[in-house]
Structure formats: structure tokens, C-alpha cells
Design a protein that fits this description.
Belongs to the aldehyde dehydrogenase family. Keywords: Oxidoreductase. The active site is at 248. Residues 23-474 form the Aldehyde dehydrogenase domain. This protein is of the alpha/beta class. It folds into two domains: 5-249 and 455-472, 3-Layer(aba) Sandwich (Aldehyde Dehydrogenase, Chain A, domain 1), CATH 3.40.605.10; 254-443, Aldehyde Dehydrogenase, Chain A, domain 2, CATH 3.40.309.10. Helices cover 40% and strands 20% of the residues. The strands form six sheets. It has a seven-stranded mixed sheet, with helices on both faces. Helix 13 links the parallel strand 15 (367-370) and strand 16 (387-393). Helix 5 packs parallel to helix 6 and helix 10 (263-275) crosses helix 11 (292-309). It starts with a strand and ends in a 5-residue tail after the last strand.
Length: 482
């Protein structure tokens, strides 16, 4: 790691940043340069993790004391929440208010949740004729974790929490767009008292650093959050050494609004479900399917909500809801999909370009499309930006068919006051998660993950622990003789 530099963010927060090149997405000016890891650097980190895995300092640490370390890390993160919210707002583009009120609360809560699990991870006893058997739930080993840029701290804690609770050691690669907060997290890991080598943070580009991590023979598991395309490459590379994998990938989540829904709540949740975090959310409910009898009313109210709430501007400005996209490449991607929607014949009901008052920076207008058909790219493909399509349906069966007409299966939301319908539709939608009368309100107690091309495995909840343990069976002969 290169020498630290002193940084001062636009909101006045100053800190010493462990340090390649990072661009302020609000001004398009450089923030700081951070070193990119080579394959040799990855090898060093992995070997440190492998050594720590076998060290008595970690291997023989009691479950309760391991929990204390995680709890201490959570305390330190909470004490420094304004700093970490500042860093992620600066490098990601999300508003400081959102980073502080949502990301940091979730990150601290996730670490504390898994701290509580440390001394509750047990196997089973199985009594059989002339035999006693039991199982041990043991750590998988050295875990390589690759996190995305949309929620740097949340994604880091989602992966670190269960991995460390189960006794694994970790090499975590930050996204090349947003590594600053992860590097700072390393200072807290050290301050919390984790033994050397247990947690290792690396920077670098996905192809070089990420590829070296996935292919390293001493890495026992890879946990990845990011695009489906990258996940397929990771699966192929991990197959060479039969690595355990967890993948959380893309989504094109539907939100169904039935005619009996609480319209005011449906509008408010629908807006948050796609427009928060600049639309850069894997579970973003970017396809709004609305029953025909209330379609016109919903569209009018939704557009009014976007106009009133989705104030676009600097992530530091008070009252701003939507900051800049994370990078120039992401801005161009979103704008290309907006153009594709226009070219396909969809109607731009709101937005559709760059805000006139924000020509500099990576800003995109909150955009609403109507008159959309299921064959359009804006209906089928993940955009990862503040772009939503609204389509009418007539029957419950049609709504479910439209909801399932995608290769993704991460999340879905259903708005209805009909209890029977809510359970029926939740069962029939092909996703790993369904929200009823809400969306995006994840909780560390509840498993998170998808089906189809949205991933393999689960994070959060008790299921998140299963991803980081392996079961060993022990057979004890109680009298069988030959």
C-alpha cells in the first residue's frame, strides 16, 4: 500500500487516506490516486490469509471472543460513520444523507448481527443403532470476496460478517471505482484487534486483480456481487479448482400494483425502489406493472412524485435526492439505454437525458418510459440507473407472466390489500425475494439472493452462514464388530 495522503471532502471532513486515480463524479476532477494490485500482490494477500487460517491466534480463538472482535469493529464503524458516509458519497455519487442514514446503519447492523452468531454455529448429533454420529460446521478456509461499487460499505459488511463469524480468513477486493472506504475500513479492522492476515483488503482492476484472486489455488471460496456477465467468467475460472462460490448478480425486478392497492403507498415505494441510489441497485424495481383500471392514475401520481422528490444535484447539497452516476462509463451506459428506448418507440413521460442545469458531472435525469412492449431492451435488460418503465396489465395471470418474462430472478414487489392474492402471487413469481407492500427494505436477519441468472446462494440471515461453513460428519462405532 502506498503512503497515506490527507484529503478534505467538499463537506469539510478531513482524513488520512491510505492510497491509483479516482474521479469526482460531481466535478469530473481527480480525487486521489490509489495503487492497483498485481497478481503478485494478490498472491501475497492470499498467502497471508492462508497462514492466518492455521495460526493459533485465529484458529484457537474462542467463538465468544471472535464475536467480540466483530462487535468492536461495528462499534468503531459506528463511531466513524460520518467519515465513511463522506468517503462513499464522494467516490460513489450517492448523497451524503443517504450514505449516512441508510448505508452506515445497515453496515453497522450487519456486523452486529453476525457478531451475535459467532457462538451459536453448531453441528448436530445423530443417534443410530450401535452408532453415535455428529456433524461439525467448520470454516471453508480462505475466502476471496469481490464487491461492487454501488454500496461499498454495505456489500463489504454483508460478506465480511458471516465469513469472519464462521472462522474463515478473507481477501476482499474492492471495486476499482470505490476502494477508498474499504481501505479506511482496514484501519478499523486493525484497531479492533483482528490477528494479522485474517482480513486483507486489495485494490485493483477486475480482470487483473479479481482474476488472480479467483484463480489462486489457495483460495477455497469466491463470493462475488456484480454483473451476470462477470459472474459467468468467475464460474468458469473457479471451476478449474472446484472452488465453492456464492454469486449475487443482476436483476430486472418487477413491481406489481393491483387495483386494490393503497395507491399513495404504492407510488411512494415505487419511486424509492428505482430512483434511490441513482437507480444503481441490483434489486431496483425498474419494471412497474400496473393493473389497467388504475394505470392512468398511477402514472400521473408517479410522475408527480418523481418531479417533487427526485431533485438532482451535488451529493453534498441539502435537499438533493439523486446525485451523479458513479462514473462516466455508467452515465454513458444509462443514456444509451434511454436512447434505445426512444428508438424502439417507447414514450418518454419524464426526463430522458442530462439535466440542463448540470452539464458537468455524471448526471442523468430521472426517466420514466410508458408505451413499452416486452420485447424492448429497456423492459428486458438491467440498466442500473434512474430509468423505469411502466406497463399496464389486465389480469393476475398476465401480471405474473410479464413479471417472469426475464432471464433474471432477484427480487419483486407486490402491492395489494388482498391477503390471498399477496401469498398466491409471491409463490408464483420466479425470484429469490418478494416484498409485499414495500420494496428494497432489506434486513440482515432475512436471506438475500436470486434465482435464474441473478445468482447462486444466499447472503444475510442464517442462510448467509451456510455459505461460509462446510459440514464434516464424524461416525463413532458403539459396538459393531466383525
Amino acid at each position: 500500500m502506498s503512503h497515506p495522503v490527507s484529503l478534505t471532502a467538499p463537506n469539510g471532513v478531513t482524513w488520512s487516506q491510505p492510497t491509483g486515480l479516482f474521479i469526482n463524479n460531481d466535478t469530473e476532477e481527480p480525487i486521489v490516486s490509489v495503487s492497483a494490485a498485481t497478481a503478485d500482490d494478490i498472491d501475497t494477500a492470499v498467502k497471508a490469509a492462508a497462514k492466518a487460517l492455521k495460526s493459533a491466534e485465529w484458529k484457537d480463538l474462542s467463538d465468544a471472543n471472535r464475536g467480540k472482535l466483530l462487535w468492536k469493529l461495528a462499534d468503531l464503524l459506528e463511531e466513524n460513520k460520518k467519515l465513511f458516509a463522506t468517503i462513499d458519497a464522494w467516490s460513489n455519487g450517492k448523497t451524503y444523507a443517504e450514505a449516512l442514514a441508510i448505508d452506515m446503519v445497515e453496515s453497522v447492523g450487519t456486523l452486529r448481527y453476525y457478531a451475535g452468531w459467532c457462538d451459536k454455529i453448531h453441528g448436530q448429533t445423530i443417534v443410530l443403532p450401535n452408532k453415535l454420529a455428529y456433524t461439525l460446521r467448520q470454516p471453508i478456509g480462505v475466502v476471496g470476496q469481490i464487491i461492487p461499487w454501488n454500496y461499498p460499505m454495505s456489500m463489504a459488511t454483508w460478506k465480511l460478517g458471516p465469513a469472519l463469524a464462521c472462522g474463515n480468513t478473507v481477501v476482499l477486493k474492492a471495486a476499482e471505482q470505490t476502494p477508498l472506504s474499504i481501505l479506511m475500513l482496514g484501519t478499523l479492522v486493525k484497531a479492533a484487534g483482528f490477528p494479522p492476515g485474517v482480513v486483507n483488503f486489495v485494490n485493483g482492476y477486475g480482470k487483473e486483480a479479481g482474476g488472480a484472486l479467483v484463480e489462486h489455488p489457495l483460495v477455497d471460496k469466491i463470493a462475488f456481487t456484480g454483473s451476470t456477465t462477470t459472474a459467468t467468467h468467475i464460474m468458469a475460472a473457479a471451476a478449474k479448482t472446484l472452488k465453492n462460490i456464492t454469486l449475487e448478480t443482476g436483476g430486472k425486478s418487477p413491481l406489481l400494483v393491483f387495483e386494490d392497492a393503497d395507491m399513495d403507498q404504492a407510488v411512494k415505494w415505487s419511486h424509492m425502489g428505482i430512483m434511490s441510489n441513482q437507480g444503481q441497485i441490483c434489486t431496483a424495481t425498474s419494471r412497474l406493472l400496473v393493473q389497467k383500471s388504475v394505470y392512468a392514475d398511477f402514472v400521473a401520481q408517479f410522475i408527480d412524485r418523481v418531479k417533487a422528490v427526485s431533485v438532482t444535484g451535488s451529493q453534498w447539497a441539502e435537499g438533493v435526492y439523486q446525485g451523479p452516476q458513479v462514473s462516466k462509463a455508467q452515465k454513458e451506459r444509462v443514456l444509451s439505454y434511454i436512447q434505445a428506448g426512444k428508438d424502439a418507440g417507447a414514450t418518454v413521460a419524464l426526463g430522458g437525458g442530462v439535466p440542463a442545469h448540470l452539464p458537468k458531472g455524471y448526471y442523468v435525469e430521472a426517466t420514466v418510459f410508458t408505451d413499452v412492449t416486452p420485447d424492448m431492451a429497456i423492459f428486458k435488460e438491467e440498466i442500473f440507473g434512474p430509468v423505469v418503465v411502466i406497463m399496464p396489465f389486465e389480469t393476475e395471470e398476465e401480471a405474473i407472466k410479464l413479471a417472469n418474462s426475464t432471464s433474471y430472478g432477484l427480487g419483486a414487489a407486490v402491492f395489494t390489500t388482498n391477503l390471498e392474492r399477496s401469498h398466491r402471487v409471491a409463490a408464483d413469481i420466479e425470484t429469490g425475494m418478494v416484498w409485499i407492500n414495500s420494496t428494497q427494505d432489506c434486513d440482515p436477519h432475512v436471506p438475500f439472493g436470486g434465482v435464474k441468472q441473478s445468482g447462486i446462494g444466499r447472503e444475510l440471515g442464517e442462510a448467509g452462514l451456510e455459505a461460509y461453513t462446510q459440514i464434516k460428519s464424524v461416525h463413532i462405532n458403539m459396538g459393531t464388530r466383525f
